[in-house]
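User: I'm writing a short report section on ligand binding and want a predicted complex to refer to. Could you take this sequence and zinc ion and write out the structure as tokens? A short remark afterwards would be nice.
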Amino acid sequence: MSLFTPTQLFDAHKFTCAVCNKDIFDEKYFCQNCFNTLPFNNAKTCKLCGSKLVGENDYCAHCKPGRSFYEKAFSSFDYDGDIISLMYAFKYGNAKFLAEVFAKYMANTYLNADLKVDMVVAAPLSVKSLLKRGYNQSLLLAQSFCNLANLPLIKDNLIKIKDTVQQEKLNNYERRKSLMGAFALTEGKVFENKIIIVIDDVKTTGTTLNRIAKTLKKAKAKRVYGLTAVSSRDKTITGTKRR
Ligand SMILES: [Zn+2]
Ligand SMILES: [Zn+2]
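Assistant: Sure. The structure tokens for the complex follow:
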């Protein structure tokens, strides 16, 4: 008796490790070696934005309690190790199959957070970025995530009306400034009194999530949470004194 059907044998995504390409014989996406070194974000995290924390503080250097439009954010991985190249391949290398890989861990993170959520939105790209990249990686994540978490995805409603430079290239102040007025809703009623989770690929300072949350709260959303695959601690502030 054959253990694998020909389709499974040739399905490179499910049966090779997403990091090292080694053959694996289950659907875990990673071989045991690579899995053991993945930077899961499950130790101490910032109480607001969910970034990995080192040291005694409850909040990271970016976050001050009571100063955000979103309630809390979560992420599955810390921006470290093999996750850096995986995320790069996902965002810029057309490795769309990684949406399924990341979404599986995001669904886990979501279940562990024990939230009651009504609906999901994906962080949008501007029309210009979408044309350039050909796909919105956050929407791919949100679609896979919604399948796993059995939640409705509200598509094409939250839009990015301002084309901004890549956020990674900006400092904190520039990020806030560049994202002002960047998001809009084509129809707000659907969010009224709802608890919403915003799905994005990477969170750095939380500015994108905060702007989206502000837009949703203006439409009378009840609560807004964020969930990203990866949480990147801003390298520009690493090693500096906390404010
Ligand atoms: Zn591997
Ligand atoms: Zn934080």
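A remark for your report: Strands lie at 72-78, 119-122, 158-160, 183-185, 195-203, 223-231. The chain has a mean pLDDT of 87.
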